[in-house]
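Model it.
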Amino acid sequence: MEQAPGALLATTSYAKSALLEFHAREHVMVMGPSYHHARQDDMVTDFRRLDGQSIAIVTADLEELETFEPWFDRHRIQFIDIEGARFGLFIGEGFRYRDYRELVLRPVAENYYTPPDWLKRFSGSCYFCEKYDLCEE
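Modeled.
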């Protein structure tokens, strides 16, 4: 992406990432808590490996641009107009994995990866919780 050379691409939903991925012809990860559909991207993206990286988050919801600030050392915001539609581009530099883990991944684990008590004895381990060291103690 010419506005953020070297930055990894992301959106805030699985559907948006899939659409942008088709046009960009590269993987577009899902950032933030999103919804249950975004959990598919959890199998592909490993946020531990992104520590310190630059990430460009594309969104049509211009009000959510500021919500990404706590995950980065510094950032800038640009706007892109495509055929009459305005998109925000949050370009974050110095991704802070530890902050993202506590602010986003821990709540995702609690909301989407915590099986009910009756299922725990059948379900075995959870790849997401193990990957990010979020397993219950």
